[in-house]
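Input.
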Amino acid sequence: MKLFFLIQVLFCSLLHAQNTHHINAIRNCLNDQQNAWNRGSIDDFMKHYWNHDSLRFVSGKNISMGFTTALENYKNHYNTPEAMGRLTFTVVYADCPTKNACILSGTWNIARATPIGGRFTLLWKKIQGHWKIVYDHTS
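Output.
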């Protein structure tokens, strides 16, 4: 019985370590996005999104599909350095229910003349060895 308990503890520890590893990798991706945005590079910001027609983006009352649509929407809404401002992300919740899928929720804020911000939930999937956002719900 003690051996069974020990095996369970070790298994849970390994799962937690793997979960932490994945979450840290995704936090690094989010930091890359934040830095790209603050350099004024929407193209670099988008590198962590899945470049596929099935990418989904939910914002306000709109649901859009496709990488190109998301890229164009960002470029249309944030078309000047003043509009882009300075972005900060704060992760509030992170979990990886599988080794190839993680969910992050948190807040985003853009410091500019008229500050804006809100909440986000991102579904990240490991695709060809790289973490990519496949579903973005931002409000």
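Residues 2-138 form a domain with the Nuclear Transport Factor 2; Chain: A, fold (CATH 3.10.450.50).
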